[in-house]
Amino acid sequence: MSMVPHGGDLAAAEARWGGPAEGWLDLSTGINPMPYPIPAIDPAAWHRLPQHDRLRELLVTARSCYGAPVDAPIVAAPGTQILIQLLPRLRPGARVAILGPTYGEHAACWAAEGAAVATVDSLEEAAAAEVVVLVNPNNPDGRIVDSERLLALADDLAARGGLLVVDEAFAEVTPRASLAPEAGRPGLLILRSFGKFFGLAGIRLGFALGAAAEIDRLARLLGPWAVPGPAIEIGITALSDRGWQDETRARLSAAAGRLADLLTARGFADRGGTDLFRLVDHPEAARLWDRLGRAGILVRPFPDRPTLLRFGLPGGEDGFARLAAVLG
Amino acid sequence: MSMVPHGGDLAAAEARWGGPAEGWLDLSTGINPMPYPIPAIDPAAWHRLPQHDRLRELLVTARSCYGAPVDAPIVAAPGTQILIQLLPRLRPGARVAILGPTYGEHAACWAAEGAAVATVDSLEEAAAAEVVVLVNPNNPDGRIVDSERLLALADDLAARGGLLVVDEAFAEVTPRASLAPEAGRPGLLILRSFGKFFGLAGIRLGFALGAAAEIDRLARLLGPWAVPGPAIEIGITALSDRGWQDETRARLSAAAGRLADLLTARGFADRGGTDLFRLVDHPEAARLWDRLGRAGILVRPFPDRPTLLRFGLPGGEDGFARLAAVLG
Questions:
Q1: B4 neighbourhood in chain A, CB within 8 Å
Q2: b or e along B187-223 (b: 16 or more beta carbons within 10 Å of the residue's beta carbon)?
Q3: Interatomic CA distance for residues B100 and A271, integer angstroms
Q4: Please, are residues B110 and B87 in contact by the beta-carbon 8 Å criterion?
Q5: Which of A18, A141, B34, B300 has its CA 20 to 30 A from that of A131?
């Protein structure tokens, strides 16, 4: 299995600290704690093979939600992770530059397929790469690279057969930074995650948008029926619910601001993030991570950067109160 | 997308014949029409990333249900199809013999990855192959190859680095034919489908059992969180419900017998099948397929064997009555 460290593994937390009496407050991921309400699901969606016409409807809805052109090639997958696993097949053995530090699976998956992977601190250092990967806005620091700059890079890569991979896993909270309106442009491949913003990570739903050659290849590698019927139905409903999306953006913005204030008032230095998580720095981060864990609050450490912690959003008053009480 | 013909695509049927007033009676797949009742699903299963401890519980339950050794290497996937897509990565460029005629995706997926694929009529013809693939019991004719013979073949293949792939997609209705008790033996890789017997094809859940080298590789190719949280929970519940499984085997056997009787009484020659579908031969099969389609009953034709039709099970009295009325 994956050797990349991740948040969200409550069994591992329980093995370390035991199970908290009041249950876990899991702040170790960037998943919206106020999930989209699961709509009633037609029993046929569980029973039948996923239907091609419903999948097409999902893809139309996703393009529209993400602001992509109506004819942009797009493919749905059971989670973005499996697309990340497949991306190396698009450029076997490529020289890959990953703008770091970022989500660890990109480097791991390219390396596992024999690519020459370099993690770079700036796009200038990526000039010799055939494939450039960045998460935008970035996880964990929220860094956003300017769209014009990324489009120029995609054009440059396209001219020499390369590819720019932009993982927009958290772009719902910064919609103007998304390159989805440019989807279909040669050299540009965009990943979108359903589970984080909609708070439904268990459903496993993600999308890739790009040029026809890459999207067709990913679709063939995934095969028919890759996305479960219930995920198709929930995706159609949630991605077309603009009212919920707008309200959620406002709610997440307020909660992220409140979280940042709570943390900075307790001596953490804000190091960025998005409206789905905050990255903070504290000289005693390792000790605080353990104190939080003992109190049933799981946050994300970074083994190779031990003064950093990433906090997801508490879901409501109880969560904020618990966090404040433990941090003192 | 896939160019292999499949059953179960109601939109394609509707494009051809229009939508039937009384709704489709879809007999074009081998999916149990009396599905396992969806249990209540903990909202956390939708919200959180799939949890490793729940996945381990699913794998323990699956091994037990399938009669595999408690330490047999096993991996879960979002449907067996995606495992079929990945199998060629286990033996790149291999000479592959597929015991045909059978489920079309095996040959298509190996060929798409550059394997040299031959469809053979008997295992004797597979002697020179590095990989041998069969569906057991076979789709569509229900052919069952003797376990002793398959184990000898697996041993022979293992001795020269090869692999026997046994797709047991329909083995729940012929449990004694399953090689799952031998899972872990070198050279043997077994696929199991959740959706067909449990009537929940939309959920996408399948398993591979085999030797550690192959199973570990498949797990790495799928990456973390490949199986959705709700599928894990439903799988644990259904795979451990032996009472429902035993009753369902009896119900399916009775329904398959009744279907076979209905068809043979109307001039179809039985060509085999399993308790989840019957394969029949009729000189007027093409005309009858169209007559059934116009009446809203979808069955599976075989373009290259035009006198054959495959019928799935009607789900109840209404379905049997509709079928009998149309066939006259």
A1: 224
A2: bbbbbbbbbbbbbbbbbbbbbbbbbeebbeebbbbbb
A3: 60
A4: yes
A5: A141
CATH number at residue A20: 3.90.1150.10
Q: Give the range of the structural domain holding residue B204, as residue numbers without chain letter.
A: 44-240
* DSSP code string of B102-126: --THHHHHHHHTT-EEEEESSGGGG
Question: Is B199 at the interface with chain A, CB within 8 A?
Answer: yes
Out of A4, A47, A200, whose CB is closest to B202?
A47
Q: Does A82 touch chain B (CB under 8 A)?
A: yes
Query: What number of C-beta contacts closer than 8 Å exist between A and B?
Result: 167
Examine the domain organization and report whether B151 and B265 are in the same domain: no
- Residue that is last in its domain, among B199, B218, B240: B240
What pLDDT, in 10s, does the model give residues A244-278?
Answer: 999 999 999 999 999 999 999 999 999 999 999 99
Residue where a domain terminates, one of B240, B262, B279: B240
Same domain, yes or no, for B114 and B176? yes
Query: Quick one: A177 and A274 in the same domain?
Result: no
Q: Say if residue A112 is in the same domain as residue A253.
A: no
Task: Please name the residue of chain A whose CA is at the shortest distance from the CA of residue B215.
Answer: A1
Q: Closest residue of A to B50, CA-based? A: A202
Q: How many domains does chain B contain in total?
A: 2
pLDDT at B3: 65
Cβ <8 Å between A224 and B2: yes
Q: Are residues B136 and B48 in the same domain?
A: yes
Per-residue pLDDT of B27-80, as tens digits, reads 999 999 999 999 999 999 999 999 999 999 999 999 999 999 999 999 999 999
Instruction: Supply the pLDDT for residue A127.
Output: 85
Nearest-by-CA chain A residue for B44: A202
Residue B28: its chain A contacts at CB < 8 A?
none
With respect to residue A5, please indicate whether it lies within any of the assigned structural domains: no
Tell whether omega for the bond before A137 is within 30 degrees of 0, i.e. cis: yes
In whole numbers, what is the pLDDT of chain B averaged over residues?
96
Chain A positions in Cβ-Cβ contact with residue B27 (cut-off 8 Å): none
Per-residue b or e along B130-141, where b marks 16 or more CB atoms closer than 10 Å to that residue's CB: bbbbbbbbbbbb
Q: Is residue B1 part of a domain?
A: no
| Single-letter residue type at B175 | P
Scanning A202-241 for CB atoms below 8 A from B yields 202-204, 219-231
Does residue A61 lie in a domain region? Answer: yes
Determine, yes or no, domain membership for A48.
yes
What is the mean predicted confidence (pLDDT) over A204-214?
Answer: 98
CB spacing of A202 vs B29 below 8 angstroms: no
- State mean pLDDT over B173-188: 97
Residue A146 sits in the same domain as residue A223 = yes
Q: Are B156 and B287 contained in the same domain?
A: no
Q: Are residues A76 and A213 in the same domain?
A: yes
What is the chain B residue with the closest CA to A197? Answer: B47
Contact check, Cβ <8 Å, A228/B202? yes
0.80 surpassed by pTM: yes
Interface test with A, best of B58, B87, B197, B204 (most A CBs within 10 A): B204
Of A51, A78, A200, the CB nearest to B47: A200
Rounded alpha-carbon distances, angstroms, from residue B91 to A55, A127, B124, B179 = 32, 36, 21, 21
